[in-house]
Amino acid sequence: MKPASVAVFDNYWATTLSFARSLGRKGVPLHFYGNGAGRWSRYRTSRHRCPTVENAAVFLPWLRDRVRSGEISRVAPTTDLIAYYCSVLREEFSPEVRRTIAPLSEIENCLIKTRFTGNLQGHPVLATAAPDSVSGAISAAKQIGYPLILKPKSHLGVGSDERGHLLRNEADLLQHYRRYSVAPGQESIAAAYPELRWPLLQRYVPSASKRVYSVTGIKDPDSGVLVPAVSYKREQWPPNVGVSTVQIAYEDDRILKAGLEVVNKLLSRGIFEVELLADEDDLYAIDLNPRGYGFLELDMARGADLPWLWYQSTLEILQPSAVPLPAVSLEARNRFRHLLNAVMRPRRAFAMDRRNPQKPRSSVSMVGHWSDPLPMLLSNLQLLRHPRSLLRSQVASLRAQRKQNLRVI
User: Fold this and answer.
1) Which domain does 65 fall in, by range?
2) Does residue 190 share a domain with residue 267?
3) Mind giving me the DSSP string for 141-168?
4) Most CB contacts within 10 A, which of 59, 236, 252, 273?
5) Is the pLDDT of residue 45 over 90?
6) Which of 181, 240, 268 is nearest to 400 (CA)?
7) What is the pTM of this model?
8) Same domain, yes or no: 228 and 344
């Protein structure tokens, strides 16, 4: 019998390339839609045009028609928007696939941070405020105390370019606190969730700049969590509010337990990543991603092939393994970003290596794999063309740091 195919909506992100490598090497037919690095993958079965994924008004009806016609039966959960769309269309999928798609209320509670924290009764929660005016933000900031993190409540409606800022004082708040513009094509999402037009403020925990813990895995709606793992974000970009560029495998039963308690409270199925911060004896859950994440390659190298397990879960009920993941000394890194950092800030890169004498013995690429080289190369080159490219951001960071040094002097 021919294996069931998977639709992959293409982009230049690590998660998409990991899904392609995981499923492609197992012989799963992969149909790529749209433009991105994945269309050049050796594992691509076919490529097709589609509306821009970000344009919900056009893309969602298009996807509904393709699911109803049977052209698309399974969609790789690679981004917030894709996870959201599949949840909106959950009843359109076949029963065996529908059982793996989280209900819309769960997706909303994961992707909208104010709803996420509001549903964590019984768990430590960072002081958070969601004012809908600058004057309200000033009052809330005084109550919480500086420094603060300013970030979007969700990337739904406002797009993924909005990352957030570390606010050290009221001048920073006045500079950055504003009503977000609606991302083109996402007017219907913004209308459904008007609160997302304003950012939130959250207490800053200093450890966030050096170590953000992640608890990852996949949850079968009938048999529970499979292959849970712990890791931590050692480097990120942009600083304090960015995505991981170096992720370290880790072992800690207390962190694992805390993360799984959050998952079991809010999410009934699917791939997940819970982010937690440590502040003395407390662990604070700050995010729950109900889809694939950027360092899937790390967990795949540890023996947790989550894209493959996700695919299998659309075919049958999965059973947890009686054998835990082996303890490994391993890291995943964005090698292009690390190289750029070493070139532009060699003293800092060298100092960071010296501060980590227990450096993992081996590493894997976070963005792509040499077994499928062309998508990996194109994804890294795309960083130089993106409006928020690492190169331009790095230059801006250096300038800001120099200005700060001058103020100190």
Assistant:
1) 6-110
2) no
3) HHHH-SSEEEE-S-STTT-SS---EEE-
4) 273
5) yes
6) 240
7) 0.90
8) yes
